[in-house]
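call fold(seq) -> C-alpha cells
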Amino acid sequence: MLKAIQVSNPDDPRIAAFRDIREADLVGRDGRFIAEGEVVLRTCIRDGRHSLESVLIDAKRLDGLADLLMGLPEGVPVYVAAQAVLDAIVGFHIHRGVLAVGSRALQSNAEDLLSAMGPRALVVAAFGIGNHDNMGGIFRNAAAFGANAVLLGDDCCDPFYRKAIRVSVGAVLTTPFGRLPAGVGAIDLLERHGFTVIALTPSGQTILSDLERPARAALLLGAEGPGLPAAMLARARTVAIPMAGAFDSLNVATTSGIALHQLVFGR
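ret:
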C-alpha cells in the first residue's frame, strides 16, 4: 500500500532538492536531475537507467497516480502537497503536479558506445546546441527513429536540464549518450569506428531524398545560424533539405526529425 508523506511547509528540509528548481537548474545539480510530468516519471521508472531519490506531487493527483507510484523502487519517498504549497516549493506554478529527483547514471564514454554497436548503426552527433528545447527535441527524435546513441560536442548544453528532459518526453533518460572530442577529432573518432559522417547544411552537395543509408551512419547537426564548422563540413558528406522560396534552414530539432526519418525509412 502506498504511503505518501504530507508536506505543508515549503521550507520542510525533506523536500529541499525540489526548492527553487529554476535557479538550481541554472547552477547545476551535482549529478542530480529533475523529472517533470507523469510521462517522464513513467519513463524513468520503466527504464530504470537512472535511480530515483524522491517524488513530489500535487495531493489532488495522488489517487490517479497510485498505480504508477507503486512501481517505484522500495525506499523512494513520495511527498504530497497542496497546489499552493507545491508552487511555493518549486518557485513557480507547476501545473503538471508531478516532480521527481533522480541521480544520473555514470555517463557513457563515446568510444565505448561506438565500439559496442553492431555492423548496422545510427548515431546523432550534435555540436554547439545551446537551446534546451532543441536539445530535448533532438533526443526525442533520436529515440523515435531508433538511433543507437546521441553524441554531444563539449560546446552543447546539458541534456539533463529539466526543460530538455521534459521536451524529450523522457528520451534523455533512456537514450545512451556521450561526449565527443572537439572539432575534427570527433570525425576522426567516428571514421575510426567505420561510420560514414553525414552533415546537414543548406549548402549540402547531396539532396536528402537522394541519400542512400550507409550501414553505419553518423548524422551531424550544428547550431542554428553558424551551423557546423567549415573544417568538419570539409570532412563529411554534406546533405541539404530542399525548401520553398527564400528559406534555406530549419529549426535544428525539426531538421533532425526529417533527416532521421529519411535515414531509417528512405532509400
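The chain has a mean pLDDT of 92.
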